[in-house]
Amino acid sequence: MSTKEQILEKVDIAELLNGTSELVLHNDDVNTFDYVIETLIRVCNHTSLQAEQCAMLVHYKGKCTVKSGEFEKLKNQCLQLLDAGLSAEIV
Asked: What is the CATH number of domain 19-90?
């Protein structure tokens, strides 16, 4: 049995709101490649090539930054990915 440790970083709220954040998609064993690709195209306005490359990176590396920008702009996209059943977070 392994123990997972999480390290919480203190981040200034102003930095989150004004700085550059990243929308990160995580791998799962539920969704198909086609579904992930279609969702990235719809939610993140990716081209089919971008979405395919992100899906491959997520599959082989475990996660991939799919969008960068201001926190407030990424928040809606992150919620849409979550609503679609994908695993995503803003960092």
From this structure: 3.30.1390.10
b/e per residue 28-42 (b: at least 16 CB within 10 A):
eeebeeeebbebbee
Residues in the chain: 91
> How much is the pTM?
0.80
Whole-angstrom distance, CA of residue 51 vs CA of residue 32 = 13
Dist CA 13 CA 6 (whole Å)? 20
List per-residue pLDDT tens for the chain, 91 residues long: 444 444 455 555 655 556 799 999 999 999 999 999 999 999 999 999 999 999 999 999 999 999 999 999 999 999 999 999 999 999 9
- Kindly give the residue spans of alpha helices, DSSP state H, lying in the chain: 13-18, 33-44, 48-61, 71-83
Cα gap 36→88, rounded to integer Å: 12
